[in-house]
Known about the structure:
The structure holds two protein chains of two kinds.
Chain A: E1 3-8, H1 10-16, E2 20-24, H2 32-40, H3 44-50, E3 57-60, E4 63-65, E5 76-80
Parallel strand pairs in A: 1-5
Antiparallel strand pairs in A: 1-2, 3-4, 3-5
Helix pairs in contact in A: 1-3, 2-3
Chain B: E1 2-7, H1 13-21, E2 27-34, E3 41-48, H2 50-67, E4 70-78, E5 80-83, E6 87-95, H3 98-115, E7 118-124, E8 130-131, H4 136-144
Helix pairs in contact in B: 2-3, 3-4
Amino acid sequence: MATLNILYFAWVRELIGRDDEQIERPSADTTIAELIETVANRGGGYTEALGDQERLRAALDQRFVPLQTAIGKARELAIFPPVTGG
Amino acid sequence: MKRVSIQSGDFGPAEELAALESLGGGGVASFTGIVRGGGGLTALELQHYAAMTADQVGRIVDDAMSRWPLLGVRVIHRFGKLAVGDRIVFVGTASRHRTAALESCAFLIDWLKSDAPFWKKEHFAGHPSVWVEARPEDETKARDWKQ
């Protein structure tokens, strides 16, 4: 079974209540947006954190990508709010 | 010279500037970001995506070095809990000419704001902490450099 590590940052992490989790990797043509919707449907903090995709950004294997990107054979997906460094 | 450090500890701008000055160019530009007080702020917490941060900042530095003729670039970005007045970030650039040094320094700090995986949380005395919202103008500023 191929796995996908999902990492959460900032308020996404706080609302979900965990830093990361490992799931079975969905089919390669599944987009990040579709996966986020599935995870958001778990309810509770997941819905609160992931329900509004306008507020979310993502990185796939440590590269920023649009949420419409297909997951392909990636091993790591990070989900977070827009960055605020500098 | 290209050096990127992502660290929790403080840094000394004077020694970073001295290293850039020793590269033999005609100009060194720098920016130091400091935790701003006010509104009851007691601390600023910076979370980052540790596995990605150094590589991503390195790519931003490579981009700057491909746009301007630079002799050296130094970037330091801190993470963890910082107090008001603490240094957060340092960007230093050295070039033969002032325009390249100044412009690349501005470019780097704009891109660090919009394209490095850091998130700031503000802590206050007497009321709950809040995650800083990204400002749309920061993304716009970084995009302006693409033209």
